[in-house]
Amino acid sequence: MKALRHILWIILLISHFPVTAQKKNSGSPLYKNPSALVEDRVNDLLQHMTIEEKVGQLSTLLGWDMYSKKRNKVSESEVFREAIQEQHIGMLWATLRADPWTKKTLETGLNPKMAAQATNALQKYAIEHSRLGIPILLSEECPHGHMAIGTTVFPTSIGQSSTWNPELIKEMAAVIAREARLQGGHVGYGPVLDLAREPRWSRVEETYGEDPVLNSEMGKAMVEGFQGTDLKSGINIISTLKHFTAYGVPEGGHNGNAVHVGTRDLHQSYLPPFKTAVEAGALSVMTAYSSVDGVPSTANNWLLTDILRDTWGFKGFVVSDLGSIEGLLGNHHTAASFTEAAAMAANAGVDADLGGKGFGEHLLQAISSGMVSENTLDEAVKRVLRLKFEMGLFENPYVNPAKAAKEVRNAEHVALARKVAQQSITLLKNQDHLLPLRKDLKRIAVIGPNADNIYNQLGDYTAPQEEDNIVTVLEGIKNKVGASATVTYVKGCAIRDTTQTDISKAVEAAENAEVAIVVLGGSSARDFKTKYIDTGAATVDSENSKGIISDMESGEGYDRSTLDLLGNQIALLQAIVRTGTPTVLVLLKGRPLLLNWPSEHVPAILDAWYPGQEGGNAIADVLFGDYNPAGRLPVSVPKSVGQIPVYYNALFPVKHNYVEEDAEPLYSFGHGLSYTDFEYDNLSMEMLEKDDDIRVSIRFEIKNTGNTDGDEVAQLYLRDMAGSVVTPQKQLKAFRRVHLKAGERKTVEFELEAKDMMLWNVRQEWVTEAGTFSVMIGASSKDIRLKDTFKVSRTIKIKK
């Protein structure tokens, strides 16, 4: 037997020799052969790499210091050269980012042409000055536009979801991807799929709201728009899903703090948007800073391996959020050393270290001490290398600077920014049809701290802007009325600072006007006086050396204990309303704010969130009737902080009233008005039960009964009348934005499947249970127009 094994070993060795010799003698290793299979190229390259080179591929360093700009020339920096030679790095993050945190300004940062030149210089050095010639993977922030100078700025995510139009968001995502890729980016951070059920949390603006179905559809649209169908296209990027998982409901609203949700709630509410995005092909996932049930997400093997990879079949790579590996030691205190933190993250399923301080030497130590196996390291490296091959970076690592200069932020992209902003604007109230405004108005007062402030209109994760690129509300109104009307602007007050107040002048402007348009809200605008922690989150620093308080009250790190309009904003609004001049309130903000007084006393209210660079034109289009608003709220608006949580799809039992007030939100999820009216009727349902599935076909009609063309957003909600576990009072299952001309009638069809009725039962199985389900169709979660029921005759186990 031993002799036989010896003979077999010699045969295997001989059979392998010619292949090995061929590789060696050919002068070019297999991984450099573009006609070879990707998996073969990955495995071949891995065999050539040292442990240090493998670990280096997993380090994603901060990128904005990696280039050197001198006048009109840009090249790789000494910092980058050292990182390649000493750390063998494989990835960079935010190379083209510019903002107060990075200290990159319009002068020191890069325009699109120079950005392309910079990334070309980095790739050239990495390929020509590393032993194996591996290109760099460049990740960029892309939530509502590529966060770089000279790119198109779209509404923030909460505004995107207010469109309730996934196809439009997919079109927008494709533009963001094109602009990033033309400048040399490969990975776009986004979409953010956290459910925003805690409005005090600072990052609500980055989410698609409180509902898992709406989040799922918006996330899917972003992934498909980013990645397209061919990563080698030169215009598509890899999508990174954030933040895995349940990051949007931190205890007390404190960003990154512990999350307390049950396993069933995770499965039924918080995980579905990520699962949908993974099924749509997402190739990257970012961990959350927070812990879930006491386990930090960055060290959660159940989340990153059992669920993400083994159950969902995710094939991409997992990246830590910035500094979250080190945070296992410094924040969560679940690791006793940086080496242990690196081991915990790697063994849980983290493939890449954002920031470059979590892995590196610490991961090398963990491997040498046996805390992390080389097989675990190899699998992580494969996931990163695989995408570099699939993007064609080994053959085409460079971009065309002239093309970047021509196509980034072109007229077509700017027009799309206006379209997304138009569709995002939500009409909350319109008493006595004050809106749309007459176009023959002669005297208009535009008042408020957000009426003419470009950065207060754009939200967090926005690069410095040339003023001419942004149309404020004041400018949009002036563009609309031209010389036919006198437009008087008074700021009136600041967002937070009570020393910058001139209410009397604002009152005078309102008294002399036919209408007063008051633009209030919040701000996520960072400035160069703001202080930041290592993760880039802003710190709440109430005053600078001059005693001036920043406008910033939202955006990463700016959590709230109240949701009031801050500073003297309410006092300003009350003074304007008291003049008797018809008043329109326009809100620019990043989170739901308390609007009790305005909702009672102001006749018309528009919510525009942060509408992006074309926000001023879009708002003017709505104010004067050139666009009929159809935005719908993706998040409930509370009456007080004491009501929180107030999201619509809470579990039974139904909430009872408080001593001070009822338990209902001020404005419900899905709410939004129009300049026309819609009628719902003729509901019919057909049900077909199969062996392992159910089909419920639902049809109804919507008629535009007014005199104005407009969009209606039809929403279908479902209630399980008796589940084996507690279920939501109602849950959105389908929606559609429908355009109807005045007097037009259209049939809308929805189809439900067994998975739309499923729940996570006590045996931890996905099942659609036998029983009765109530169908509710209407214009919001509260405004239900049609109802019916159907019965499922038997329980069906869902394959997930």
From TrEMBL:
Pfam family, one: Glyco_hydro_3
Annotated signal peptide: 1-21
GO BP: any one term: glucan catabolic process
InterPro entries, per database record: Cellulose_Degrad_GH3, Fn3-like, GH, Glyco_hydro_3_C, Glyco_hydro_3_C_sf, Glyco_hydro_3_N, Glyco_hydro_3_N_sf, Ig-like_fold
Ranges of residues in domain Fibronectin type III-like: 712-781
GO MF term set: beta-glucosidase activity
Listed SMART domains: Fn3_like (SM01217)
Alphabetical UniProt keywords: Hydrolase, Signal
Keyword Signal applies: yes
KW Hydrolase (keyword) present: yes
Annotated family: Belongs to the glycosyl hydrolase 3 family.
Protein name: Beta-glucosidase
